[in-house]
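Q: May I have one protein plus its fold?
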Amino acid sequence: MLAYLPGIGAQEFVGTEDFRARIAAETVASEHPLLPTYYGRPILTKPPLHYWALGGVQELAGTRAPWSARLLSLAALAATVAMSGAAARAAGGPRAGWIAGMGYLLGAYILKNGVNAEIDPLFACFVVGAVLAWWQAQGGESGQTGQGGTARRCVLYAALAGLLAGLAVLTKGPALVPFAAGAAYATWRCGRKPTWAVVAAAVLTFAPPALLWPLALHQLDPEVRALAITEGPGMFFAWDGRFLVRTLLFPVTLFCACLPFTVPALLRLRAPGRAALDRYLMAAVGGAFVLLLLNATKSTRYLLPCFPLLVVAGVLRLELLARTGPFVRAVCVLFLLAAAVAFPLTFSTLSFSGALALAALATAATAGFLLARRAPAAALALLLVPARALFTQVYVPRWEAGEDSVRAGVAELAEQLAGARNLGVATLETPRILDPLQKRITYYDHPKDLAEAVRGGARFDALLLGTQEFEHEVPGFAPAGFVRVGDKHVAVLLPETP
């Protein structure tokens, strides 16, 4: 995991990282820790566990910076790797364990986004732990629930599975449902029949953390709830042409995001001696995937718990077919090609450290190719540091040079708002844009809410909208244009001249 630590803060906040970091800081500092807020406005779209943990890590680090905000996700990734490696080792031997752990870290999506300061790495950690613990609660590879010590062991694993599932709910709410249904389907598909003691242990440890957030919301003041930002009804039902296209591409996303280790996982395999864990994991991922298709606002992050499970299944299949060595050689060739292609594509932005990273990746891939037949795990280990550096030292400088950084846009925005002190803001979940302005922020979830507030007497020096469409006129304000800040176009509205 030390391979992921250098350069963890190389890229500025992206996506909703700073949005989560801001909420976490406010939640920890709040007198009401069960009520996450964003610029003081209650936000109830997600339960608070991730915000508690992220806020605590930021306080220990003493700063709300990209590197400190990503430490929690790094720890979650480390735990996920450890659990995946342990499961593969138990089912396929020590080499399978090492290959599964390092293979997951070398997946395409994980190299780029595996430690982002988002909710999903922590959620995936809890889900993967729950799915694997539930398998052990059913006897693991042997399927023996037995009596005495074996029965007690199964009950303990069931309690662990329930607790981790409850923590997953406290992290991302009903997002657990597809994976719980997938695990239930896999249990039936593999012919396992959990005992009543096992089921009871899982339910008893699941209920307290899972019910904490709904009970807290039930006690919430109705006036506070009315002001809160909540999850919209379109989560499962807002279908249109754009979402339909994304749904059709979802299987491609599942296949590509964790390449190359999804290739052996998705091979149709009926060979004798196939690990029972392999069948269980593929059924669990398949069952979860079917339900995830119903979500019209999905993204790659929704699939994150699937990736380590697919890697474990793929490694077990490679071991069964005695093809681990040749497959690792193919992985080394892919990374050698990546280094060769990256050099001309990034030459104009390549720093000395970036050039060293590409040279190290090419060298490690060549050495790994020669080593892979005898020691495939060692070959993958050679790739870890330079493969991660391909992102932090080569991709990030090119990303910044391509006007994806917000620095220039924030400076232009600050110039336009030089005389303003009190801003009304809507649909702009990006503190990396708002915080540097050093203004008083009043946040609204939608432009129509901001317009209604102005009509009701709210006074602002300027308005910022994270949208390119003026669907709602704001009395007393006129559009002053757009400022491109990173990948966003921010609409600026200034008071009309009398």
Q: What stands out?
A: Residues 457 and 477 are 13 Å apart (CA to CA). Strands lie at 37-38, 41-42, 422-426, 440-444, 462-465, 477-485, 488-495.
